[in-house]
Specification:
232 residues, mainly alpha, Serine Threonine Protein Phosphatase 5, Tetratricopeptide repeat, 13 helices, elongated
């Protein structure tokens, strides 16, 4: 059996496994959580993670799974791919396929933020016009804020500028991504928390309803975090 044949066989087996683990509840959850996914089976993330663990890491398998177009297969691809082998070209290709927040956020949070072109693509995507490409930029920024321990404050201060620039975008999944990134940057350290709070206050006073929503959402989260600290 050739390497390609072996991968093709794994894809068939993975799709059969996913179909066998589809449930009406998980189909319903897609609609419930606002995930308008094409070619979806309805499989829980917990089950997809079980399958990913059994398959192990494989860049070739990830590429083949992504090509199926199946929502759950693409979720699986993000879990089995090898970050060190992911190129900027692949990131761009996958990003252009994003058509809902579930696949966008999972790929960014589980895979893309570990790849060497992460910051380059984050800056590019934050300035995009397509809804889920732009969402990807801010999902990446939020993910990097939580996962990239080596990133400098300067990188996140630049991210705050992207947030402030794009906060007037009133599309639901964009503004929620912007807020997520702002709130996550605030958790990095005291300096970035102060800078994030300043951005949030400016946005809360903006003439733009979307920007005001982002600013107030972030300020509310910061106040809750302060209350938890006082209680602890």
């Amino acid at each position: 059996m050739t390497a390609k044949s072996a991968v093709d066989a794994q894809v068939r087996e993975a799709l059969e496994w996913l179909e066998a683990h589809s449930t009406p509840k998980d189909v319903g959850n897609l609609t419930r959580f606002g995930i308008n996914a094409k070619n979806a089976l309805g499989v829980s993330m917990a089950n997809i993670q079980v399958l990913a663990k059994s398959l192990g890491a494989s860049h070739e398998l990830a590429a083949a799974l992504w090509k199926t177009g199946c929502y759950e297969a693409r979720m699986l691809a993000s879990l089995v791919d090898e970050p060190e082998r992911v190129t900027a070209t692949q990131m761009e290709r996958w990003c252009r396929d994003f058509d809902n927040w579930g696949i966008c956020d999972t790929v960014c949070f589980k895979l893309f933020d570990q790849c060497s072109p992460a910051w380059q693509k984050t800056e590019e995507w934050c300035g995009r016009s397509a809804e889920f490409e732009k969402r990807a930029g801010f999902a990446m920024l939020a993910s990097l804020a939580g996962h990239d321990k080596k990133a400098s404050d300067a990188q996140f201060l630049a991210g705050l500028a992207w947030i402030e620039r794009e906060a007037a975008d009133d599309r639901n999944f964009v503004k929620k991504g912007v807020s997520w990134a702002l709130r996550r940057i605030a958790t990095r350290n005291a300096k970035l928390r102060e800078a994030s709070a300043a951005v949030a206050r400016r946005l809360a006073a903006s003439d733009s309803s979307a920007a005001r929503w982002v600013g107030k959402d972030a300020l509310g989260d910061l106040k809750k975090a302060d209350a938890r600290k006082r209680e602890s």
